[in-house]
Write a structure and sequence with these properties.
Layout: H1 19-25, H2 27-30, H3 35-49, H4 54-81, H5 85-90, H6 92-95, H7 98-102, H8 106-117, H9 119-124, H10 150-171, H11 178-203, E1 223-225, E2 249-251, H12 254-260, H13 276-297
Parallel strand pairs: 1-2
The structure holds manganese (II) ion (2 copies).
């Protein structure tokens, strides 16, 4: 269950209303790298982990819940930045007097200008956050990635945290409000913290490379195709590959190579100890291991499937604060 606590996770404050920055900040409310995306991504990924990997379930739900708390902070900040808008709109009788509006004071001019900056706030949402990005595109579940495999999901999450961090970094350049900056810095920092949590979680799964189960074909896993004149050298085509430790093999003349090998049908493995036989063995062993892990964890107990965590699997639970 969820239980709502009325305090914000971080004391969000604003010096003065600023509808223009409120619009930019929508990017982290309903945008593709925003807080709702993060919250929903980790929430959805958590389900498949509950039984086989209760520790990953726990982490994903904790971080998802924190992301909802960030969504709340961003929404609260947008609302404070839009202070006055809703009240002005409620002054419906006054606004219906078009002449008065057009002959209005500088404040009215600013109001009209702000309305043009983000018509949604003024025409649709009545001065409250909209679940859109800063351009008004509605939030979409297409932002969410979850593949039911923690070796993939942790990597996707590392990328999500990196992009969220950078959007905060960019947002900080567009406000001088020290209070807003303070909040953005907190939110940015938490994404850096989450990034490392997902990294550590990925490391705790062994083996975790390549993502998923099936091993890569040793004929092609370490070949670098030199697809232009004068390609640069670097650790991506020189020395050993970082995860598998195979020697990079540069195909200097790809066109000739494709013809010589009959479009790679006759390609030979080189720079690697892996063979077709060793690959098939690993595929079989890892498939069996991962299937057994999931099957064992999801067996019915006493004729029912339930959502309880197996006490044997809960042994690594944190000691304090656990209920
Ligand atoms: Mn966040
Ligand atoms: Mn995060």
């Amino acid at each position: 269950m969820f239980h709502h606590v009325k305090e914000l996770q971080f004391k969000a404050r604003v010096s003065k209303p600023d509808p223009r920055f409120a619009r930019l900040l929508l990017e982290q409310f309903g945008g593709p790298n925003g807080e709702l995306k993060a919250a929903m991504q980790y929430f959805v990924q958590a389900f498949g982990c509950r039984k086989p990997y209760p520790d990953k379930y726990d982490m994903l739900m904790d971080i998802a819940t924190e992301e909802f708390s960030h969504l709340e902070i961003v929404g609260a900040t947008i609302q404070m930045l839009l202070t006055g808008v809703n009240g002005e709109l409620k002054n419906a009788a006054d606004e219906s007097d078009l002449n008065k509006l057009l002959d209005g004071t500088a404040a009215k001019e600013t109001y009209i200008h702000d309305a043009l900056v983000d018509p949604h706030f003024f025409l649709v949402s009545g001065g409250t956050p909209t679940l859109t990005d800063s351009n008004g595109n509605p939030w979409s579940a297409t932002y969410i990635m979850g593949m039911g495999d923690p070796t993939v999901d942790m990597r996707v999450n590392i990328a999500a945290e990196a992009t969220a961090k950078l959007v905060y970094e960019n947002l900080m350049k567009f406000t001088d409000d020290v209070y807003v900056k303070e909040t953005l810095r907190f939110l940015m920092t938490r994404e850096v913290a989450h990034l490392q949590m997902f990294q550590a979680a990925l490391e705790s799964i062994q083996p975790n490379f390549p993502p998923g189960i099936l091993q890569s074909d040793p004929k092609f896993s370490n070949k670098y195709f030199n697809m232009s004149e004068g390609s640069f050298s670097g650790p991506w085509n020189e020395g050993k590959s970082p995860e598998m430790g195979e020697e990079w093999q540069v195909v200097e003349e790809p066109v000739q190579h494709i013809r010589d090998t009959e479009s790679l049908l006759n390609e030979k493995a080189s720079g690697t100890n892996r063979t077709e036989k060793s690959v098939q063995e690993t595929n079989k062993a890892l498939s069996a291991e991962r299937k057994a892990e999931v099957d064992l964890a999801t067996l019915p107990k006493n004729g029912e499937y339930n959502w309880d965590i197996d006490p044997d699997k809960a042994s690594k639970k944190k000691k304090s604060g656990g209920k």
